[in-house]
Design brief:
The chain has about 525 residues and is of the alpha+beta class. Helix 12 (about 400-415) runs antiparallel to helix 13. It is built from 14 helices and 19 strands.
């Protein structure tokens, strides 16, 4: 009797230990999933902010280039001999006729320009692209003195005064002036007004995948007015009333360097993430904003995954705790559970960092790997993007099985070609290869040669039985970087591929950004 009781107690003790072991395993799994998901979620958030900042930077550069192009045109116009001859003697009828003809012809070649003119130092227009405004005095009194001071400070450069409402068209224009000198002294100036809406249209037409709901605004921190606001077509030249924006003007009032930052803010209509870029030469602050829901889509998806996964783990823990009380099934259930745990760990890692179809890393894996790069200056990195052209059409015409096969074939070709590189699938039809150099190897030409080698294999036609022959094409771009190696490389590569056509062997778009 005592032996039987002893054996029963031993079994009970064994099952209690197993039960505790399973509970500990599930708790550890939940802790691990929370840690991994939180880490990846934070990485995804940082990646999203970096992406938004990179796009804002690109839009700011477009703004600068847009204004700089107009400055170049005005500077060229000011150097014409007809301009100087007229300003030396504005009563010379022949000089006036020649200058007006030159003014008219020059203006006809320009786009998005409302007005181009020559004015004497007292700001009286002598010639104009609109002859009806000849003789108009542009500024008087303090405003004229302010213009004189700005032109003298600008010297040989163009003075951009900012945005104003044109009295002739009642539309916003960006006004700029250039002094004309004679023997070191100003004798007059030329002026030009470009349509501000042309810049707004350019920015709004540049849609970025994943940021479809984004909106722009730009303020002049010096004059504390809107340059434009994509949410309010009546905004140009309107004074700032939002306290946060007024504070921004105070913050940047004395700043003479480029400043960029990301931020979060709330409005009655929702929560938003934004990125700003300060353009010191014009005293303009460009802001690009979007909803947190859109910017943090991946991060929120990871959090939802954590909730669902933790709930499943909790349910499984309760289930297995109950099953462990069943004496005859304990061992089989325990072995099955341990195996399932291991598979769950593997599946979790694969789901977060790998692409199941092509067996390469995914976008999150690339972002994580880039964060761990510490020796870019010593060992530069090459990045190459391969984008399958018209992939959706291939799926439609040849079937999704053919599309999947093309993705697998592309991934395998890249892995076989770049044996010392890492291959990632960063989009539905997009792959990125990261190659770390060491001791100067590989060189630029070596990487380009491997890209050409891979391209030759990738564009090989493939006969699809019963359908036809598939002729795949690719868009390819490649860069070399030593500093600032982060998730923004994806945006840089994407911008390069989107600006190019079909990739040709020997003509790959490569930019050495390490110089």
């Amino acid at each position: 009797m005592s032996k039987t009781n002893a054996k029963g107690k031993k079994k009970n003790l064994t099952f209690t230990s197993i039960n505790r072991f399973i509970v500990v395993q599930f708790v550890l799994m939940i802790i691990l999933s929370i840690f991994i998901t939180t880490s990846v979620s934070n990485i995804a958030k940082d990646n999203a902010k970096q992406h938004l900042a990179a796009v804002t930077d690109q839009r700011a550069q477009l703004t600068i280039d847009h204004i700089a192009n107009a400055e170049t045109l005005l500077n060229s116009f000011s150097k014409a001999p007809q301009v100087a001859e007229l300003l030396k003697d504005e009563n010379d009828a022949d000089a006036l006729k020649a200058a007006q003809y030159y003014n008219t012809v020059f203006a006809e070649e320009l786009e998005n320009v409302e007005g181009l003119y020559i004015a004497n130092w007292d700001s009286k227009t002598l010639t104009h692209s609109n002859p009806n405004t000849v003789g108009v005095v542009i500024r008087e009194g303090d405003r004229l003195e302010e213009l004189h001071k700005a032109l003298e400070e600008a010297g040989k450069s163009v003075y951009v005064s900012g945005v104003l409402i044109s009295p002739s068209s009642n539309e916003p224009v960006i006004s700029m002036y250039k002094a004309v000198m004679d023997a070191g002294k100003p004798i007059g100036f030329v002026g030009m007004a470009i349509e501000a809406n042309s810049l707004i249209t350019k920015l709004e037409n540049m849609k970025t995948p994943g940021l479809e709901k984004s909106f722009y605004s730009m303020i002049d921190v010096k004059d504390r007015v809107y340059v434009f606001d994509s949410e309010d077509s009546e905004s140009p030249c309107q004074p700032l009333v939002i306290p946060d924006l007024v504070s921004k003007c105070d913050e940047f009032a004395e700043v003479n360097t480029v400043e960029a930052e990301t931020y979060e803010f709330n409005r009655p209509d929702g929560k938003f993430v934004g990125s700003s870029y300060y353009i010191p030469q014009y005293h303009w602050l460009l802001m690009m904003n979007d909803t947190r829901k859109e910017v943090y889509t991946l991060a929120y998806a990871m959090r939802m995954f954590l909730i669902v996964f933790s709930a499943l783990l909790l349910a499984m823990m309760l289930l297995f705790t109950y099953l462990n009380k069943r004496q005859d099934q304990v061992k089989r259930k325990l072995l099955s559970s341990v195996e399932q745990f291991n598979e769950t760990k593997k599946s979790l890692n694969t789901a977060m960092f790998g692409d199941v179809l092509t067996d390469v890393g995914n976008r999150i894996k690339l972002a994580t790997d880039l964060m761990n790069i510490t020796d870019g200056k010593t060992n530069p990195y090459y990045f190459a993007m391969f984008n399958i052209m018209e992939f959706s059409n291939i799926n439609t015409a040849y079937g999704s099985d053919t599309g999947d096969a093309l993705l697998v074939r592309t991934a395998q070709t890249l892995k076989d070609t770049f044996k010392n590189g890492q291959v990632y699938r960063t989009g539905s039809d997009e792959f990125v290869v990261a190659i770390r150099s060491e001791n100067g190897m590989p060189r630029n030409n070596d990487v380009l040669a491997d890209i050409d080698k891979a391209l030759k294999q990738l564009i090989e036609p493939e006969t699809i039985q019963g359908i036809g022959t598939l002729y795949p094409n690719f868009k390819i771009s490649s860069i070399k970087k030593t500093i600032d190696i982060d998730a923004a490389v994806i945006t840089i590569l994407k911008e390069m591929t989107n600006s190019d056509g079909v990739a040709m062997v020997g003509q790959i778009n490569f930019v050495d950004m390490s110089e």
